[in-house]
Write a structure and sequence with these properties.
Layout (H helix, E strand, L loop, with lengths): L16 H10 L4 E5 L7 H11 L4 E6 L4 H9 L4 E4 L4 H42 L6 H7 L8 E8 L6 H10 L3 E6 L2 E6 L4 H19 L2 E6 L9 H11 L10 E3 L12 H15 L3 H18 L3 H21 L8 H7 L4 H20 L2 H17 L7 H8 L3 H12 L3 H19 L4 H7 L5 H12 L3 H9 L8
Parallel strand pairs: 1-2, 2-3, 7-8
Antiparallel strand pairs: 4-6, 4-7, 5-6
C-alpha cells in the first residue's frame, strides 16, 4: 500500500488488540485500521478503547464476517468505516481519505469550540470584574473550571502605557502557570488559582524579564491580596490595578497591594481603571483626554446615583493622584484647600466644580514647568548623541524616556524649535563633517558610523544640509576653501 500517495505514513503495527492498545497508549496515531477478529482482544475492544480514551482518533474495521450485530457495535463506538473482506486498495484508500476529512473537520470544529469557549470565559470574567457577585455566577464558575477558593489577581501594563498589548498577552499566556488571563481595557488581568505567593511573584518577574528581552519594552505589575471567595473577585481586580500606582515607590516593577498605602475607599475595578488612566494621561500631558475622562467619571456618578461618601472618596483619590504627580515632576505641592473643597461639597455639582478646579490647577502647573520640558529635550538629545549609529526613531526615543511619541514630538519642537527628525539629521551630519575633516575614513564607512546605512541617502541628506556632497566637502576642506553652507 503506497500510503504516501494519500499523505499518510504508518506509525506502527500490532499483532493483536492488546498490543494495539498498548501501542496507542505510548504513540501518536490518527487513524487505526484493524481486523475485527483477533486473539487476546478483538477489533471492537480496540474501537472501545479509542472511543473512551481518545475519541478524536478514527477507527476503520476490517472483517470477513457480515455480522449485523458487529456492525451495530461498531457504530456505537463511532467507527469511521466498516469494510467487509475481501477488500481492495481503492476501497481502503477511500475509507482512509474519508477518515482524513473527518479528522480535519473535527479539528477545525475543536479549534472553533476552543476559541468560543475562551471568548465566553473572557466575557464572563469581564462581568465578574464590573458587577457585584450574584449566586447564579456559581454555575458558570463550575462550567468554565474557574476555582476561586484561593487566588491572587495581577494586573499587567506596558511602560509607557500603550493600546497595543497583544505581545504582552502572548507572553503571559505562554509563561503563566495555573492561571488564566484576559484583557481589561489596556491592561492584562491574570488570575492565579493558588495561594503560593512566591511562585506568583517569580512568574511575574519572569514575564517582566521576557518582555524586556523579546519586545524591548518594560512592564509594570500590580498584585492583589490573597482572596478566598468568588464574591470578592471584583475587589481583587481593583486592588491589582490600584497596586500599579505603587510602582513609583517600589524597587522594581512589581508591586503588591496594601490597604495601608491607600485611604479607606472601596473602589470597583472600573473606578480603579478610570483613576489609573487619568494618572497616565496627566503624566503624558494629554490634558484634553484627561478632561474628557473626568467628565465621563462624573457622568457615571450622576447616572448610577452612587453613595455621596463613596463619590467623595473617589474624588479624594483624584487629589492624591495629582499630588503624587507633583512629586514625580518635582513641582510645588498642591494646596490642601482642594481636598477640603472635595470633602465639604454639599452636592454633586459642587463636588464636580471642586475637582475641575483641582484639574485646572495641576494642568496649569504642568504646562508652566518649562524646566521639565527642557530636561526632557536634553535627555532626548543626549540619547541621540550616545546612539548616533543606531536606527533612531521617534518611537524608540519616546520608549526610552517612558513617554508617548506624540508628547515627545510636541515638547521637543516647542523647546528646541526644530523637529526631532531634523535634529537627528543635523547631529548626524555635524558628526560626519568632523570625521570628514579629521580622518581618512571612507565615506561609506562614515555613513554607517553616523547611522545612515544607505550611502546614497547619506550623500543626499549631507548635500541638503551642507550644500555640497561629502566628497566635495572633504576636497574643499583639504584645499582650504569654504564656499559652502554650514
Amino acid at each position: 500500500m503506497n500510503w504516501n500517495a494519500i499523505d499518510c505514513e504508518v506509525a506502527g503495527t500490532a499483532n493483536d488488540g492488546l498490543e494495539a492498545i498498548e501501542f496507542l497508549k505510548n504513540h501518536e496515531a490518527d487513524i487505526i485500521i484493524t481486523d475485527i477478529r483477533m486473539p487476546e482482544a478483538d477489533g471492537l475492544c480496540v474501537a472501545k478503547y479509542v472511543f473512551e480514551n481518545c475519541p478524536e482518533k478514527k477507527v476503520i474495521l476490517l472483517t470477513g464476517y457480515a455480522d449485523f450485530e458487529y456492525a451495530q457495535t461498531a457504530i456505537h463506538y463511532n467507527v469511521s468505516a466498516f469494510i467487509l473482506k475481501p477488500t481492495n486498495k481503492k476501497e481502503l484508500f477511500e475509507a482512509v481519505q474519508t477518515a482524513q476529512k473527518q479528522l480535519v473537520s473535527s479539528k477545525r470544529q475543536f479549534k472553533i469550540a476552543k476559541e468560543e469557549d475562551a471568548f465566553l470565559k473572557e466575557q464572563f470574567l469581564q462581568v465578574l470584574t464590573d458587577h457585584a457577585y450574584k449566586p447564579q455566577f456559581e454555575e458558570k464558575l463550575l462550567a468554565y473550571q474557574l476555582d476561586l477558593d484561593h487566588y491572587y489577581v495581577a494586573a499587567f501594563r506596558l511602560i509607557p502605557y500603550h493600546e497595543d498589548i497583544s505581545s504582552l498577552k502572548k507572553i503571559i499566556i505562554d509563561e503563566k502557570e495555573n492561571a488564566y488571563c484576559y484583557r481589561y481595557n489596556n491592561l492584562i488581568i491574570t488570575v492565579y488559582f493558588h495561594s503560593d505567593f512566591g511562585r506568583i511573584l517569580a512568574n511575574c518577574n519572569e514575564i517582566e524579564a521576557i518582555m524586556r528581552t523579546l519586545d524591548s519594552r518594560e512592564i509594570s505589575v500590580g498584585i492583589s491580596r490573597l482572596h478566598t471567595a468568588p464574591a470578592t473577585f471584583r475587589q481583587a481586580v481593583s486592588e491589582a490595578i490600584r497596586a500599579l500606582t505603587f510602582n513609583f515607590y517600589a524597587e522594581n516593577n512589581v508591586s503588591v497591594f496594601s490597604s495601608e498605602k491607600m485611604e479607606n475607599c472601596d473602589l470597583t475595578a472600573e473606578n480603579s481603571l478610570d483613576l489609573f488612566q487619568f494618572e497616565n494621561l496627566l503624566l503624558d500631558w494629554q490634558f484634553a483626554e484627561a478632561e474628557i475622562l473626568l467628565r465621563n467619571i462624573f457622568a457615571k456618578f450622576k447616572r448610577n446615583f452612587l453613595d455621596a461618601q463613596e463619590v467623595k472618596n473617589i474624588c479624594s483619590q483624584i487629589y492624591y493622584i495629582c499630588s503624587r504627580i507633583t512629586i514625580k515632576k518635582e513641582l510645588p505641592a498642591l494646596s490642601t484647600d482642594h481636598l477640603t473643597a472635595i470633602r465639604s461639597a454639599c452636592d454633586i455639582f459642587a463636588l464636580e466644580q471642586a475637582v475641575t478646579t483641582l484639574f485646572c490647577d495641576i494642568r496649569d502647573s504642568l504646562n508652566d514647568t518649562s524646566t521639565t520640558q527642557n530636561q526632557l529635550a536634553e535627555k532626548a538629545m543626549q540619547y541621540i548623541r550616545e546612539n548616533l549609529s543606531s536606527d533612531l526613531s521617534l518611537e524608540q526615543i519616546a520608549d526610552h524616556l517612558h513617554i508617548s511619541a506624540s508628547h515627545l514630538s510636541r515638547t521637543f519642537k516647542k523647546t528646541a524649535n526644530i523637529s526631532l527628525t531634523d535634529h537627528i539629521n543635523q547631529v548626524r551630519i555635524d558628526r560626519a563633517k568632523e570625521l570628514l575633516r579629521g580622518t581618512d575614513i571612507y565615506i561609506y564607512a562614515i555613513s554607517e558610523m553616523v547611522g545612515y546605512h544607505d550611502a546614497t541617502y547619506f550623500s543626499s541628506i549631507f548635500k541638503k544640509l551642507a550644500g555640497v556632497s561629502p566628497s566635495e566637502y572633504r576636497n574643499l576642506i583639504s584645499s582650504d576653501q569654504v564656499s559652502f553652507r554650514n
